[in-house]
Hints:
The structure holds two protein chains of two kinds. Chain A is an all-alpha fold. Chain A has helices spanning 2-28, 34-38, 45-55, 61-73, 87-122, 127-141, 144-158, 176-210, 213-220, 225-262, 267-277, 280-308, 311-314.
Amino acid sequence: MLNFLLKRLLLMIPTLIGVTIIVFLIIQLVPGNPVDALVPPESSQEVKDQLIESLGLDQPLYVQYLKWMGDLLQGDLGRSIIKTSSVNTLLFDAFKNSLVLALFSAAFAFIGSLILGVIAAYKPKSIFASIGNMIAIFGISIPNFWGGLILMGIFSVTLNWLPSIGMYSVGGDGGFLDLIKHMILPGIACGMVTLGVMTRMIRSNVYDLLNEEFVLTLKAKGAKSSTILLHVLKNATPGILAIAGLQFSQLLGGSILVETVFSWPGLGQLIYQAISQRDYPIIQSGILLVAVFFVLLNILVDLLHAAIDPRVQKG
Amino acid sequence: MSSSAVEVSDKETVNLANVTPAAATAEESFARKAFRSFCGNKFALVSAIILLTIILSTILAGVISPYSPLEGHAKDRLLPIGSPGHILGTDEQGRDMLTRMLYGGRMTLLAGFVPVIVAACLGGGLGIIAGYFGGRIGTLIMRVLDIFYAFPAVILSIAISAALGQGLLNIMISIAIVFTPPVARVMETAVKRIRNQEFIEAAKSSGAGPFAIMRRHVLPNVFSDLFVFSTSQISLGIVIAAGLSFLGLGVAPPTPEWGVMLNSIKQLIFVDPMLTIVPGLGLFLTALTINICADGIRDALQVK
């Protein structure tokens, strides 16, 4: 297991280097002089030249990259152009909030899809299966930001059951219950796609497994249906886990749109503001953070996979 | 495309198949069989018809609607759905909602379809080259593309779009970049599967060059994989395109686009929660019918 972990960690290094190169190059796509985006339009050429020199923008591209990497490795993500604070503080606070929402949303989607998917696989002709299939295809088709607006329209504006914006009530106690109340609508909106994708995946996985010989053997032995389900689920876990890891990061990425709808103080909201203010260091560090998180998450998924299925370690 | 083929009625196809059973080549009869199987799937057929209607009516927007998509009357602001003369009501500037939906659909559909086609060509090409040659070239191509997997699709397209700046072309470029690596991976796997089969060996030994083999022998054999995967990307492309516009990265308002319309209306949700239904429903219905059609195409092409 330790060898496996070391191998995965070593393989991670070229991926991470590649990720930083892509993130660095994306910002080079900005048309025109990068300084134009940094200073007010009426600034003189002198000011611009000074800034170019102080930021090292007159250096060759690879020197700029190495300097940026050097700062990164020391944990310095740079400074926000608009907000005068360092990117680190802004980013990690926002990321934490996004993660809270994504975890809640993932819990909703994973539990929901497990129930819907298993039912649909067990009783493919029943009405539950049809409803499950419908929820699945609706889930993958619904744009999450529109889903959020509709939920907000129904449950906040019309029925006034749940709060529509923010993470905590203004002047509230900031308690856990308050947080949950604020999370329900954006959580469901974010999780719909994942719910749809996972339900379809679990349904076809479980359906295939139910037709395998070991299930027939279990049935012949007179095993209870709950025992059979346990066996089937254990066999389905590696596949589900692999997709779940992938889906979680997609969910985190997709939450940007939902966060802007619900004014959730997360990474999405931060990046959204940064886009309109052309605050590139924030955008750059934001996607870098998500990508690095995703790479680490993948390793975690691989480790779990290896723990469940020892064949993986050898392969 | 499936949607244009749907116009031919089911009965006609059957007749055609009966008339020339022996003359049809193997490929034709497979396509025909797949088409018949697709038409036998009622869900897929109905979806294809709805989708075709949506596409046609956005193309014919100027013919269908008497209103301008850009100019409205201040006195007709925010008319509800079902108002006389404005079936879907009007928006916050008094512009006819149906008209803006029709014109807006052009942008959204274009921004969803074009990147998928670009990614299919680019990713398909890279995947076939990687899969056919294998070895160092294959590893190099696939490892570079693998790095893109570290980014969630939405966030990567947002970052690229934000860097390139506002505009329809820019969101199409960003979505095409995001969609290319997955296509390449699917194609590489498909090509590896057939690479060592005898007909490829035969072509090699008869002196055909690698690119001729890829074009004549590899591509036709993996084309259905490419087609199935690409159709499944279309709805995601449309949703991402609308999402980017929703964030203000796509077309600039006043030009109608479904994402832009949702964004400008979102502020008014506290005035009338019903307002967001129309633009979103167009988007949802399009994505839904495309997904059902894509499922139908996948099932139909599995018929061998």
